[in-house]
Design a protein that fits this description.
CATH topology of the largest domain: Cobalt-precorrin-4 Transmethylase, domain 1
Shape: flat
Number of domains: 3
Distance between the termini: 64 Å
Structural class: alpha/beta
Mean pLDDT: 96
CATH class of the largest domain: Alpha Beta
Low-confidence stretches: none
Number of strands: 12
Number of helices: 11
Order of helices and strands: EHEHEEHEHEHEHEHHEHEHEHE
Amino acid sequence: MEKNKKKIVNIFLASPRGFCAGVDRAVEIVKKTIHKFGTPVYVRHEIVHNKFVVKSLISQGAIFIDELSEIKDKSRPVIFSAHGVPKEVINEAKLNNIIYIDATCPLVTKVHREAEMLAKNQFNIIFIGHKNHPEVIGTMGQIDNNYITLIENKSDIENYSPKIENNKFAYITQTTLSVDDTLEIISQLKKKYPSIKEPIKSDICYATTNRQEAVKQIAGKCDLFLVVGSRSSSNSQRLVEVAKRFGCKESILMHSDQELPIDKIKNSKNIGITSGASAPEILVENLIKEIKSITDIKFEEVVTSVEKVSFKLPTMLIK
């Protein structure tokens, strides 16, 4: 009997984790749009970065497209993803008389308005973010590119040269970055441009910050950290990095194609688990069930903050 007894593994579950208010709102917008307008409803790009969520919405009547030109029936509504879109996409929808519902996260919209105001006041805008991420494309697409330059790391600062020669500098950031990496970049920016204008309130969203803080509290005592989330999810990728930086040598992104690392689980004493802001809780529950099938567990939820944020739906969906 003793020979067959499973080893006990300690599971530390980070909280907060999973869906943020912006993701909740975006998913609800798709569901409400389908309820109001019937099917099909088009969605430009993944509404949020999670295949499980996307497949669920497809089953309810959503059609995901990359560009508005793919819409076969222009009388059907289209939803813009939580990451935001360039202004040219909105203009294209208006030109083609397409009904559109904007599911851009309000915290991303805040960055859009900052960029517009800074450009209006002739600032050289340094945008800290990841190239080709949809949020970055959407933000940079709010203004003339003569005002804005993307910076991805500290070495980019050394090679940066302003587009406007007026000695007015400001920075904005993508909402889903590593808090610590961003602080290092900002510190270097301030050394180069001491009078650089910064956002009144950090652009990195509350959910990104809270999830990273929760991981930091757990990582140092874990042999293995499992982050449930998509490969295309910036905030999920950052959680993997944060776990490694704060003391857990083995940190793995549990995306849709990632097999359960059975040997690593069996060889671990303490395992940390969290999920990115676009990963539904059922995926975390399923992961824990899989771990339970191969080892006994002791379970502890580590709560570092409680989130009570919610965002209103667009007016046209609540009338």
